[in-house]
Amino acid sequence: MIQRCLILLALTASTAYPQAKVGTSVTGFLELSPSVRSNGMGTVGVMLTDHESAYYNPAALGFLDNKYASVSFYPRKARLVEFMDSSSIEYNSTVLTARLPDRVWSNSLPVGIGIAYQHLSYVDGPYIERTYDGIPTERTFFWKDYADCFSVGIGYSGVVDVGVGVTYKDLSEEVVDYKGSGDAFDFGLLFRAPLNGLFLSQPHGDGYRLRSSLLLGMSVSNYGSSFKFMGGDYVLPKTGRFGCGMELVYGSERMRWLSLLPAYEMEVLFPGDDQRTGKFGMEAGLADALFLRVGTVNAQEGLVGFDTYGIGVSSRGIKQMLLGDRLDVPASNLNLSKFLLAHLNVEFSYARIDREGNTMIDKIDYYSINVIL
């Protein structure tokens, strides 16, 4: 009888996930974003090229800014209204990325390759175990969902930058004495093109000018067989995304003093009821040191729209403003301290999703610390 009760809880608890629309809590957490930058921008991400956006589009790994590797730890805690004896939800993501050295490729071939590993964990509870008749027992339990994601992306830089990527996901869940498993694939394409003649000014002063680029991204996520749990098969939330953005940057080759990135993304869930979600986000940056982010998500079937906002701080721009040319250290003079000063950067990001009146989760806070080398 307890087993039948757990199945009922699985079907009911799926509404705890902010964007889950297919299946149960077994797979619903796959639609949660592990990118704090994206969460602050209305959860748009398929056209972005930072290392965390590889979860939306693995093709982004071909255009990583870091020369060596990066790692981020990302916690999320959600505040819930009272429901099903659940007290809290925690969601964590650790992202490791690396870019292969340029010497791997021919000097005449402008190709970059990046790899990533992401571990996502979702813990919901504690729940009070109940019998089929709804009588509470003395036991409590947690829903524990995990995903291990292995990604690779290749990017070609030319007149138009073109990237492709693929991700493999190993999925698992634990509830009391029951375990489930499954796997899935993501595929992505990414295009970046300078808009010559549009919002492009001639260099002046110390080489400062206004530049613009068009960003296009598309991906298919969670393509695979069903998730097997407690003798049942659950449909994975297959999701198609298409997004575009325009990046405006004022600065020199060394310093991006001002930047603005408006972006729009359409998300379609299939198979199903042809559910579409429109998202709009914007990021404004100052000297590559301070970033302000806002976004909104249009209403979905059965839900209401919600707004997001966020902030980011990066040591990259701060070091550039304070040290300038002193960061350019000849390789022959490099020691460990100078190397770390020149190449090691730390980024902190915060985002808030305000879903009050939308689901059980009314407000969600996201934090991440990203170390880039």
Question: Could you write a compact summary of the structure shown?
Answer:
This protein is mainly beta.
Descriptive notes:
- With 373 residues, the chain is mainly beta.
- It has a single domain (2-372), classed as Porin, CATH 2.40.160.
- Helices cover 10% and strands 53% of the residues.
- Strands 1-2-3-4-5-6-7-10-11-12-13-14-15-16 form a 14-stranded antiparallel barrel.
- The N and C termini lie far apart (53 Å).
Kindly list the characteristics that best describe this protein.
single chain, 373 residues, mainly beta, Porin, 14-stranded antiparallel barrel, 16 strands, 53% strand, globular
What global shape is seen? globular
Major beta sheet summary: 14 strands, antiparallel, barrel
SS content category: mainly beta
Strand content: over 45%
The CATH topology comes to: Porin
Query: What pattern of helices and strands is seen along the backbone?
Result: HHHEEEEEEEEEEEEEEHHEE
Radius of gyration: 22 Å
Question: For this structure, what is the CATH class?
Answer: Mainly Beta
Number of domains: 1
Q: Widest sheet: strand order?
A: 1-2-3-4-5-6-7-10-11-12-13-14-15-16
For the record, the CATH architecture stands as Beta Barrel
What is the CA–CA distance across the termini? Answer: 53 Å
**The CATH H-level homologous superfamily:** monomeric porin ompg
Low-confidence stretches: 1-24, 81-85
Number of DSSP helical runs:
5
